[in-house]
Amino acid sequence: MLSNTLAKSCMRSRPLFMASRPMAAFSTGTYDNILVDKKEGGVALVTLNRPKALNALCYALFEDLNDAMMQLDKDPEVRAIVLTGSEKAFAAGADIKEMEPRMYPDTYMTDMLTWWDQLNTLKTPVIGAVNGYALGGGSELAMMCDILLAGEDAKFGQPEVNLGVIPGMGGTQRMVRAIGKSRAMELCLTGDMMGAEEAASRGLVSRVVPVDQLVDEAIKVGAKIAKKSAPSIAMAKECCN
Ligand code: DAK
Prior knowledge:
This protein has 241 residues and is α/β, with parallel strands linked by helices. The chain has helices at 59-74, 96-99, 104-109, 112-117, 137-144, 171-179, 181-190, 196-201, 214-226, 230-240, and strands spanning 34-38, 43-48, 80-84, 89-91, 126-130, 133-135, 147-151, 155-157, 193-195, 207-209.
């Protein structure tokens, strides 16, 4: 059951007005909440790594993710990025404990919208590899990826209504565009989850892959993209989006 406790890795407090911090020198594997691994063939693998909270998207995780993604985006050796989570959860949503005390004006006047939005500014294509839960902000983060592959047990959902809020980072629009208004609204208004096969049949993900092959398959897609012209890929990505 969901409890009120937070994984210690996210106990770093979030300043009300965040100063933009200088980019740290990029080195792989140095983050608290994600793992970064540069593979052969121009692909970087970024793994959300906050297992105690099912990769709930707290401020500290976003700080790590945004920093790594911006560094990888600038790295000429990296031509595609694979973003994944654990076998149990891609990400179980925004961190409920962190969200609880916030009111919308505070969210609007501080950087919260910005830290959710940075993934949309990347030129490098991002392939999402979703195993397990992709809920709330986790589903929204997955839908920000350019290509999505799902493991057989993936579950997508927008359960924000169960908490008395709504999907805050584009989930309403992206879900409608991906799978059509009626089913998207059913998910957003009931909080129900959708399995991998249905997600594939409705076009939310490209295809379903066995759980243990998912990340390798996503890396293969990335390696194929990495062989093409980088400007063409960046322009095609921008136009599709
Ligand atoms: N936040 C914080 N901790 C979470 C979490 C979450 N979203 N989801 C799970 N955890 C933690 C649990 O508290 C538990 O911690 P301990 O008790 O062990 O310390 C641990 O992860 C394992 O969870 P469970 O024990 O619950 O595991 P189960 O297998 O029983 O259940 C579950 C898995 C995924 C069905 C369940 O954990 C669950 O229902 N989680 C919550 C899912 C959810 O409601 N997600 C939506 C959150 S709201 C905005 C931007 C974004 C958003 C809103 C506004 N703006 C920019 C304005 C987004 C909102 C959301 O995402």
